[in-house]
Amino acid sequence: MAKTVSLTLPLSRKDVANLEAGDEVLLSGPVYTMRDAGHERALQCLEDTGQLPFNLEGATLFYAGPTPAAAGRPLGSVGPTTASRMDFATPQLFAAGIVAAIGKGKRSPEVVQACKDTGSVYLCTVGGIAALLAKAVTASEIVGWDDLGTEALRKLTLKDFPTYVAVDTKGNDLYREIETAAQ
Amino acid sequence: MNADNPNGAARHSSGGVKAAGPLAADTVAGAVYDAVRTCAVTLRPDFRRAIEDARAQAAPAGRTAGVLDRILKNARIGAEDAVPICQDTGSVWVCLEVGEELAVPGNIFSGVNDAVARAYTDGALRMSLVRDALFDRANTRNNTPAFCELKLVPGAHATLHVLLKGGGSDNASRVVMLPPGAGAAGVRKVVLDCVREKAANACPPLVIGLGVGATFDKVAGLAKHALLREVGSPAASAEAAAFEEELLAEVNALGIGPAALGGSPTAVAVHLETAPCHIAALPVAVNMGCCAMRSASVRLV
């Protein structure tokens, strides 16, 4: 039976070990935004220096490119982009210390395996409701790669940001379970 | 008939057809600016009503109702706070339908890119375009260029369509060249395969634009134009309406649901546009419209 859990970021592997696919998770604390260009940059950065502009250990990635500040909020709107486009880099980033990633849509078998191997989770959130999700973001600052525009590396501070566990540390996969159940 | 055919355009801009009213580049640019600003913060009203209807039919305590409630709440926040309803404020797709009795003066789209740049800056929208798909993926930083087409239609009116198209839903779309023998069953399989494989990336509930016919390049345009049709309005023919209804039922039987978190609806409409084609061909295009459906159609003349 799916449960609702509130977690404070950054996470430890222990924090996510008991999460199960389908659980609702409310996140509070810092996440780092990275999309397509950011992932390419991150892999290059890891190869060159062995680190990223933020502490990887226990960090959560959010696959998102926000709109600028608006309506008195640090971001006008922000929501998940398609996670599968980051599949090429995710196993390596999980191995380097990332514990969770937030996006939308199915992941590759390699990413599901990486969740099992490293004890990391893939969280999904609803796409197309970015004005609402922006209300769960209390701060935003650029920490690197400013030349990438909306794809710059940002640290966002979340407050009860709503997500679901899409792939848990045992490799259970919410999207595929839903698909299979309907067939 | 499509006026990106240079012969057609030349005939109407230079040859003796009396203009029924003024159609100026400034008018088009101004309308594009207004449409972008409005669309970015507004869930299309017909689509919103379809979500409201779906919400009324959902079990109140379930995940489906929760997602639909959030889509509706998001639309309210967008309208009240004038913030974008989706962070992907899209590429700008513009179609100007011009009545054949009108003259098209010079480059009717000459002010569009400037209007887009101003609208995206003034509206604090996201700049989501790169200079070249393959060789220079630097952000253009003003969301230009817009992707424009001119279409000749019967009559003496001009209508501007502006669609803000998100990357996720366009990526979840496809063109397939079927053999004619594949028939309706083949078209059905293309739609259902596309939804099964890609709907989770396209932010359901969807409007599914389905183009069948024309040529390899034009069939995608049919599917895109189909997204402009009012959700819930009837198809051009009874045959098409029946096929749309059948496809919608089958799509929703997949159980993918809002946000692909299970349940129904996966789509609120399938809109089909068909066209003539070559004896050897059965072109099919699926263009996914996401749950942040944003477009406007404005009569200019």
Plain-language structure description:
The complex is a heterodimer of chains A (183) and B (301). Chain A has 183 residues and is α/β, with parallel strands linked by helices. Chain A has one domain: Fe-S hydro-lyase, tartrate dehydratase beta-type, catalytic domain (fumarase), CATH 3.20.130. In chain A, 26% of the residues lie in helices and 27% in strands. Chain A is built from six helices and seven strands, in the order E-H-E-H-E-H-E-H-E-H-E-E-H. The longest helix of chain A has 14 residues. Chain A is globular, with a radius of gyration of 15 Å. The N terminus of chain B is likely disordered. Chain B has a four-stranded mixed β-sheet. Helices cover 38% and strands 23% of the residues of chain B. Chain B has two domains: 123 residues, Dihydrodipicolinate Reductase, domain 2, CATH 3.30.360; 127 residues. In chain B, strand 2 and strand 3 form a beta hairpin. Chain B has 301 residues and is an alpha+beta fold.
Task: Summarize the entry for a quick read.
The complex is a heterodimer of chains A (183) and B (301). Chain A is of the alpha/beta class and 183 residues long.
Largest sheet of chain A, described in full?
A: 5 strands, mixed, barrel
Number of helices of chain B: 9
Q: End-to-end span of chain B in angstroms?
A: 19 Å
Please state the structural category of chain A.
Answer: alpha/beta
Instruction: Specify the CATH architecture of chain A.
Output: Alpha-Beta Barrel
Overall number of domains of chain A: 1
Strand content of chain A: 25-35%
Largest interface: A-B, 42 and 45 residues
Q: What is CATH's topology name of chain A?
A: fumarase
Instruction: Indicate the percent of residues in helices of chain A.
Output: 25-40%
- What number of domains of chain B? 2
Helix-strand category of chain B: alpha+beta
Question: N-to-C SSE series of chain B?
Answer: HHHHEHEEEEHEHEHHEEE
Q: Which outline of chain B best applies?
A: globular
Keywords (chain B): 4Fe-4S, Iron, Iron-sulfur, Lyase, Metal-binding
Domain Fe-S hydro-lyase tartrate dehydratase alpha-type catalytic (chain B): 31-298
Family (chain B): Belongs to the class-I fumarase family.
GO molecular function (chain B): 4 iron, 4 sulfur cluster binding; lyase activity; metal ion binding
